[in-house]
Hints:
The protein is α/β, with parallel strands linked by helices and 463 residues long. The protein has twelve helices and 13 strands. The protein has helices at 20-23, 41-52, 72-81, 93-109, 126-147, 165-173, 192-197, 221-235, 252-255, 323-360, 389-397, 428-445; strands at 119-123, 156-160, 177-181, 203-209, 241-244, 268-274, 286-290, 302-306, 309-313, 364-366, 375-380, 405-407, 416-421. A hairpin with an 8-residue loop joins strand 12 (405-407) and strand 13. Helix 3 (72-81) packs antiparallel against helix 10. The mean pLDDT is 91. Pfam families: Pyridoxal_deC (PF00282).
Amino acid sequence: xxxxxxxxxxxxxxxxxxxxxxxxxxxxxxxxxxxxxxxxxxxxxxxxxxxxxxxxxxxxxxxxxxxxxxxxxxxxxxxxxxxxxxxxxxxxxxxxxxxxxxxxxxxxxxxxxxxxxxxxxxxxxxxxxxxxxxxxxxxxxxxxxxxxxxxxxxxxxxxxxxxxxxxxxxxxxxxxxxxxxxxxxxxxxxxxxxxxxxxxxxxxxxxxxxxxxxxxxxxxxxxxxxxxxxxxxxxxxxxxxxxxxxxxxxxxxxxxxxxxxxxxxxxxxxxxxxxxxxxxxxxxxxxxxxxxxxxxxxxxxxxxxxxxxxxxxxxxxxxxxxxxxxxxxxxxxxxxxxxxxxxxxxxxxxxxxxxxxxxxxxxxxxxxxxxxxxxxxxxxxxxxxxxxxxxxxxxxxxxxxxxxxxxxxxxxxxxxxxxxxxxxxxxxxxxxxxxxxxxxxxxxxxxxxxxxxxxxxxxxxxx
Length: 463
């Protein structure tokens, strides 16, 4: 989300001058103040429409995990619900019922021991859901500390440095020390040994990522839990786990059924996921689910009297449209388990085939292959010294493709990579077109004598 700030790059300040065919006697329109008079709706539409043509094609944006295509029936349902306030459960009881059904579906999908008595909620996205999970961990830790007569002023949370920025926000906003485990060598994920090494009695929890945004790989949730079980046996320190399943929680249940990562592990207390990523819904909707009611402290639940009814709320946001929640339920109803399995397996098939084709080209080295999340990362081969991944990213923009290039975090800032996210709507045919365009651009890049772009000059992508 863009942030308006005096330090941001300056936008044009002169007034808009619409083309005569659209102006209808309006000569100029201010950019940063309200127009003095009304505009004809067709004029207003055309002005906004024309500016938006400068945006990239969302379907060709291989940087985003966010859903960029839905069925017409889903779009119609969303349009019908745009004016429904999700928080007003008394006025829109059936929208609230569909939210409750979604929470129960996910609770069962993720093997909650509570079964039909699910504890969870929808959110505006996985970032909000992650923060709710972190808050619950902090409150439960503080309650245990107080009961034992111990201080509560120095909480910490352990995670790999590959976490999404929402966790930095959580730690900053709620005064929790972040214990970030850096990358080492070819290990880009949090390992059990290194997670345990950071834990002590002030650790509110360990965050394990089911699908790193850097390379699409799963972190070993079960092994991390086993290592924490051993820590508790040796020291008495009981550290819970939150699974950041922003993407993988909508992938692994369908195409990795033998992977144990969810509430089947007693140490996993909460899971967040993005409905608007591999949940296949337009942005923005996320989900926070706890293993049982005890995992969500009572003091995080607010009971409010809103428009005539007492209702619980524990999301950070209040008013928001019900459209995305309804669309999520539509997908659950429309696709079922078999449909989700087919969609996610197709995406993985495209990702693994595409990564293999890129590897065959010669100038690239794969870091991952898309065989966990349908996401893979690759870098330039050791012998390539006349162009960078940033040159590749920049050149692919000429063909309309947004392929992000970025450097990895500490301690692998020396490693720069490209990443491809395959999601619903990215077909084998589009993969073939991507390879064709990549070959076309490589023929140009391989002739340049030295790299042109680095992280500071290529595009605007920042991981």
